[in-house]
Design goal:
- 2 copies of one chain form a homodimer.
- Chain A has 4 helices and 3 strands; from the N terminus they run H-E-H-H-E-E-H.
- The first copy, chain A, is an alpha+beta fold.
- In chain A, strands 1-3-2 form a 3-stranded antiparallel sheet.
- In chain A, a hairpin with a 5-residue loop joins strand 2 and strand 3.
- Chain A is globular.
- The interface between A and B is medium-sized, with 30 and 29 residues.
- Chain B binds a DNA duplex (30 and 30 nucleotides) through helix 2, helix 3 and strand 3.
Chain lengths: 112, 112
DNA sequence: TTTCGACATGTAGACTACCGACAGCTAGAT
DNA sequence: ATCTAGCTGTCGGTAGTCTACATGTCGAAA
Protein backbone atom coordinates (compact mmCIF):
# COMPACT_ATOMS: atom_id res chain seq x y z
CA UNK A 1 0.00 0.00 0.00
CA UNK A 2 2.49 2.59 1.16
CA UNK A 3 5.07 3.73 -1.30
CA UNK A 4 8.46 2.11 -1.18
CA UNK A 5 10.82 4.48 0.57
CA UNK A 6 14.11 3.35 -0.86
CA UNK A 7 16.76 4.25 1.66
CA UNK A 8 19.48 4.35 -0.93
CA UNK A 9 18.50 6.64 -3.80
CA UNK A 10 17.82 4.25 -6.61
CA UNK A 11 20.86 3.69 -8.80
CA UNK A 12 23.37 5.25 -6.44
CA UNK A 13 24.48 2.13 -4.61
CA UNK A 14 27.40 1.53 -6.99
CA UNK A 15 28.42 5.13 -6.57
CA UNK A 16 28.29 4.92 -2.78
CA UNK A 17 30.33 1.72 -2.68
CA UNK A 18 32.92 3.00 -5.13
CA UNK A 19 33.23 6.27 -3.23
CA UNK A 20 33.55 4.43 0.08
CA UNK A 21 36.40 2.35 -1.29
CA UNK A 22 38.09 5.44 -2.68
CA UNK A 23 37.84 7.19 0.68
CA UNK A 24 38.61 4.27 2.95
CA UNK A 25 40.87 2.10 0.84
CA UNK A 26 40.53 -1.66 1.21
CA UNK A 27 37.45 -2.92 3.03
CA UNK A 28 35.31 -6.01 3.31
CA UNK A 29 31.64 -6.05 2.36
CA UNK A 30 30.17 -6.00 5.82
CA UNK A 31 32.25 -2.99 6.78
CA UNK A 32 31.28 -1.18 3.59
CA UNK A 33 27.62 -1.62 4.45
CA UNK A 34 28.20 -0.44 8.02
CA UNK A 35 30.12 2.58 6.80
CA UNK A 36 27.40 3.58 4.35
CA UNK A 37 24.81 3.32 7.10
CA UNK A 38 26.94 5.31 9.47
CA UNK A 39 27.75 8.18 7.09
CA UNK A 40 24.06 8.41 6.25
CA UNK A 41 23.48 9.17 9.91
CA UNK A 42 21.90 5.91 10.91
CA UNK A 43 18.70 6.82 9.07
CA UNK A 44 19.58 4.50 6.24
CA UNK A 45 19.84 0.80 6.71
CA UNK A 46 21.35 -1.16 3.93
CA UNK A 47 20.36 -4.77 3.49
CA UNK A 48 22.84 -7.51 2.73
CA UNK A 49 20.51 -8.48 -0.09
CA UNK A 50 21.67 -5.30 -1.79
CA UNK A 51 25.32 -5.05 -0.87
CA UNK A 52 26.68 -8.47 -1.77
CA UNK A 53 25.04 -8.71 -5.18
CA UNK A 54 26.31 -5.19 -5.88
CA UNK A 55 29.86 -6.16 -4.92
CA UNK A 56 29.72 -9.20 -7.15
CA UNK A 57 28.45 -7.06 -10.00
CA UNK A 58 31.14 -4.43 -9.52
CA UNK A 59 33.81 -7.09 -9.40
CA UNK A 60 32.53 -8.60 -12.65
CA UNK A 61 32.64 -5.19 -14.29
CA UNK A 62 36.27 -4.95 -13.23
CA UNK A 63 35.76 -1.85 -11.13
CA UNK A 64 36.79 -3.48 -7.87
CA UNK A 65 39.20 -6.28 -7.05
CA UNK A 66 38.61 -8.91 -4.42
CA UNK A 67 41.04 -10.77 -2.24
CA UNK A 68 40.57 -13.13 0.67
CA UNK A 69 42.03 -12.12 3.98
CA UNK A 70 41.53 -11.97 7.72
CA UNK A 71 39.47 -9.23 9.33
CA UNK A 72 40.27 -7.24 12.48
CA UNK A 73 37.99 -9.68 14.28
CA UNK A 74 39.96 -12.65 12.99
CA UNK A 75 37.44 -13.85 10.45
CA UNK A 76 37.98 -14.95 6.87
CA UNK A 77 36.67 -12.13 4.71
CA UNK A 78 36.76 -10.81 1.18
CA UNK A 79 38.59 -7.51 0.94
CA UNK A 80 37.67 -5.20 -1.86
CA UNK A 81 39.59 -2.32 -3.39
CA UNK A 82 39.20 0.02 -6.35
CA UNK A 83 40.84 -0.81 -9.64
CA UNK A 84 42.08 1.78 -12.08
CA UNK A 85 38.96 1.45 -14.22
CA UNK A 86 36.97 1.61 -11.02
CA UNK A 87 38.36 5.07 -10.38
CA UNK A 88 37.34 6.15 -13.85
CA UNK A 89 33.92 4.64 -13.31
CA UNK A 90 33.56 6.54 -10.06
CA UNK A 91 34.30 9.83 -11.81
CA UNK A 92 31.77 8.97 -14.49
CA UNK A 93 29.10 8.11 -11.96
CA UNK A 94 29.69 11.27 -9.98
CA UNK A 95 29.35 13.31 -13.15
CA UNK A 96 26.18 11.55 -14.17
CA UNK A 97 24.69 11.95 -10.69
CA UNK A 98 25.43 15.65 -10.71
CA UNK A 99 23.88 16.01 -14.12
CA UNK A 100 20.76 14.24 -12.93
CA UNK A 101 20.39 16.34 -9.80
CA UNK A 102 20.97 19.50 -11.79
CA UNK A 103 18.17 18.49 -14.11
CA UNK A 104 15.70 17.90 -11.30
CA UNK A 105 16.83 21.09 -9.56
CA UNK A 106 16.10 23.09 -12.68
CA UNK A 107 12.64 21.60 -12.62
CA UNK A 108 11.96 22.41 -9.03
CA UNK A 109 13.03 26.01 -9.55
CA UNK A 110 10.98 26.48 -12.71
CA UNK A 111 8.02 28.73 -12.03
CA UNK A 112 7.01 30.31 -15.26
CA UNK B 1 26.49 -4.57 -22.29
CA UNK B 2 26.63 -0.84 -21.66
CA UNK B 3 25.01 0.48 -18.54
CA UNK B 4 21.51 1.79 -18.81
CA UNK B 5 21.68 5.55 -18.98
CA UNK B 6 18.30 6.49 -17.67
CA UNK B 7 17.56 9.98 -18.84
CA UNK B 8 15.08 10.59 -16.06
CA UNK B 9 16.68 9.82 -12.71
CA UNK B 10 14.98 6.66 -11.57
CA UNK B 11 11.94 7.34 -9.43
CA UNK B 12 11.69 11.03 -10.24
CA UNK B 13 9.23 10.81 -13.10
CA UNK B 14 6.26 11.14 -10.74
CA UNK B 15 7.90 14.16 -9.19
CA UNK B 16 8.56 15.78 -12.55
CA UNK B 17 5.01 15.20 -13.74
CA UNK B 18 3.46 16.47 -10.52
CA UNK B 19 5.68 19.54 -10.55
CA UNK B 20 4.86 20.21 -14.19
CA UNK B 21 1.16 20.14 -13.44
CA UNK B 22 1.65 22.42 -10.46
CA UNK B 23 3.57 24.92 -12.56
CA UNK B 24 1.55 24.74 -15.73
CA UNK B 25 -1.94 23.89 -14.50
CA UNK B 26 -4.03 21.60 -16.67
CA UNK B 27 -2.22 19.74 -19.43
CA UNK B 28 -2.57 16.63 -21.56
CA UNK B 29 -0.05 13.80 -21.51
CA UNK B 30 1.70 14.55 -24.75
CA UNK B 31 2.26 18.17 -23.73
CA UNK B 32 3.58 17.08 -20.33
CA UNK B 33 6.16 14.88 -22.01
CA UNK B 34 7.14 17.69 -24.40
CA UNK B 35 7.46 20.13 -21.53
CA UNK B 36 9.67 17.79 -19.51
CA UNK B 37 11.92 17.28 -22.51
CA UNK B 38 12.07 20.99 -23.14
CA UNK B 39 12.89 22.07 -19.58
CA UNK B 40 15.60 19.43 -19.51
CA UNK B 41 17.21 21.26 -22.39
CA UNK B 42 16.43 18.80 -25.14
CA UNK B 43 19.06 16.42 -23.82
CA UNK B 44 16.42 14.20 -22.32
CA UNK B 45 13.96 12.37 -24.47
CA UNK B 46 11.06 10.87 -22.69
CA UNK B 47 9.35 7.87 -24.17
CA UNK B 48 5.61 7.44 -24.26
CA UNK B 49 6.17 4.05 -22.75
CA UNK B 50 7.08 5.87 -19.57
CA UNK B 51 4.71 8.81 -19.50
CA UNK B 52 1.34 7.18 -20.06
CA UNK B 53 1.79 4.35 -17.58
CA UNK B 54 2.98 6.95 -15.06
CA UNK B 55 -0.10 9.11 -15.65
CA UNK B 56 -2.37 6.11 -15.19
CA UNK B 57 -0.57 5.22 -12.00
CA UNK B 58 -0.79 8.75 -10.62
CA UNK B 59 -4.46 8.91 -11.46
CA UNK B 60 -5.06 5.63 -9.64
CA UNK B 61 -3.25 6.96 -6.61
CA UNK B 62 -5.61 9.91 -6.68
CA UNK B 63 -2.87 12.49 -7.12
CA UNK B 64 -4.08 13.72 -10.49
CA UNK B 65 -7.52 13.98 -12.04
CA UNK B 66 -8.29 13.30 -15.68
CA UNK B 67 -10.89 14.79 -17.95
CA UNK B 68 -11.53 14.46 -21.65
CA UNK B 69 -11.33 17.62 -23.70
CA UNK B 70 -10.18 19.17 -26.95
CA UNK B 71 -6.61 20.29 -27.42
CA UNK B 72 -5.34 23.52 -29.01
CA UNK B 73 -4.83 21.46 -32.15
CA UNK B 74 -8.42 20.30 -32.13
CA UNK B 75 -7.81 16.74 -30.99
CA UNK B 76 -9.60 14.71 -28.37
CA UNK B 77 -7.25 14.51 -25.41
CA UNK B 78 -7.12 13.67 -21.73
CA UNK B 79 -6.42 16.69 -19.60
CA UNK B 80 -4.75 16.13 -16.27
CA UNK B 81 -4.61 18.36 -13.22
CA UNK B 82 -3.36 18.09 -9.65
CA UNK B 83 -5.72 17.05 -6.89
CA UNK B 84 -5.43 18.24 -3.31
CA UNK B 85 -3.71 15.02 -2.25
CA UNK B 86 -1.53 15.38 -5.34
CA UNK B 87 -0.24 18.66 -3.97
CA UNK B 88 0.59 17.00 -0.68
CA UNK B 89 2.28 14.18 -2.52
CA UNK B 90 4.35 16.64 -4.50
CA UNK B 91 5.57 18.26 -1.30
CA UNK B 92 6.44 14.86 0.11
CA UNK B 93 8.32 13.82 -3.00
CA UNK B 94 10.27 17.05 -3.11
CA UNK B 95 11.25 16.58 0.54
CA UNK B 96 12.28 12.99 -0.02
CA UNK B 97 14.28 13.93 -3.11
CA UNK B 98 16.11 16.64 -1.23
CA UNK B 99 16.86 14.26 1.59
CA UNK B 100 18.26 11.73 -0.87
CA UNK B 101 20.47 14.24 -2.65
CA UNK B 102 21.72 15.59 0.67
CA UNK B 103 22.69 12.09 1.68
CA UNK B 104 24.66 11.46 -1.49
CA UNK B 105 26.22 14.91 -1.28
CA UNK B 106 27.45 14.17 2.23
CA UNK B 107 29.04 11.04 0.84
CA UNK B 108 30.77 12.78 -2.01
CA UNK B 109 32.21 15.37 0.35
CA UNK B 110 33.42 12.84 2.89
CA UNK B 111 37.18 12.61 2.82
CA UNK B 112 38.33 11.34 6.16
C1' DT C 1 -8.18 13.45 -52.82
C1' DT C 2 -4.77 10.69 -51.39
C1' DT C 3 -1.14 10.72 -48.36
C1' DC C 4 1.88 12.08 -45.04
C1' DG C 5 3.80 14.09 -40.83
C1' DA C 6 2.85 15.73 -36.34
C1' DC C 7 -0.26 15.05 -32.60
C1' DA C 8 -2.03 11.89 -29.21
C1' DT C 9 -2.97 7.61 -26.38
C1' DG C 10 -1.99 3.33 -25.18
C1' DT C 11 -0.06 -1.89 -24.36
C1' DA C 12 3.34 -5.84 -24.00
C1' DG C 13 7.51 -7.50 -22.75
C1' DA C 14 12.01 -7.11 -21.15
C1' DC C 15 15.21 -5.46 -17.95
C1' DT C 16 17.68 -3.24 -13.93
C1' DA C 17 18.33 -2.62 -9.35
C1' DC C 18 16.67 -2.87 -5.12
C1' DC C 19 14.61 -5.16 -0.86
C1' DG C 20 13.03 -8.74 2.58
C1' DA C 21 13.64 -13.08 4.10
C1' DC C 22 16.13 -16.66 4.44
C1' DA C 23 20.45 -19.90 5.10
C1' DG C 24 24.78 -20.91 6.84
C1' DC C 25 29.16 -20.61 8.80
C1' DT C 26 32.89 -18.89 12.40
C1' DA C 27 35.15 -16.61 16.54
C1' DG C 28 34.92 -15.38 21.00
C1' DA C 29 32.40 -14.63 25.12
C1' DT C 30 29.19 -16.61 28.95
C1' DA D 1 27.55 -26.00 25.30
C1' DT D 2 25.28 -22.17 23.64
C1' DC D 3 24.76 -17.80 22.09
C1' DT D 4 25.70 -13.42 19.80
C1' DA D 5 27.85 -10.70 16.50
C1' DG D 6 30.44 -10.78 12.42
C1' DC D 7 30.33 -12.05 7.68
C1' DT D 8 28.93 -13.92 3.03
C1' DG D 9 25.66 -15.23 0.23
C1' DT D 10 20.94 -16.67 -2.52
C1' DC D 11 16.04 -16.51 -3.88
C1' DG D 12 11.95 -14.41 -5.12
C1' DG D 13 9.39 -10.46 -5.58
C1' DT D 14 8.54 -5.75 -6.99
C1' DA D 15 8.81 -0.95 -8.89
C1' DG D 16 9.77 1.88 -12.48
C1' DT D 17 11.77 2.51 -16.66
C1' DC D 18 12.62 1.57 -21.70
C1' DT D 19 11.90 -0.24 -26.54
C1' DA D 20 8.91 -1.36 -29.75
C1' DC D 21 4.69 -1.72 -31.41
C1' DA D 22 -0.46 -0.69 -32.38
C1' DT D 23 -4.03 2.61 -33.27
C1' DG D 24 -6.11 6.55 -34.69
C1' DT D 25 -6.96 11.78 -36.09
C1' DC D 26 -6.12 16.41 -37.93
C1' DG D 27 -4.42 19.58 -41.28
C1' DA D 28 -1.49 20.62 -44.98
C1' DA D 29 0.87 19.53 -49.06
C1' DA D 30 1.07 16.97 -53.38
Amino acid sequence: MSKQQSEVPYGTLDLLILKTLETMGTMHGYAIARRIEQVSGETLQLSQGSVYPALIRLEQEGWIREEWGISETNRKVKFYSLTRTGRKQLLAEVASWEKATALVARFLEASR
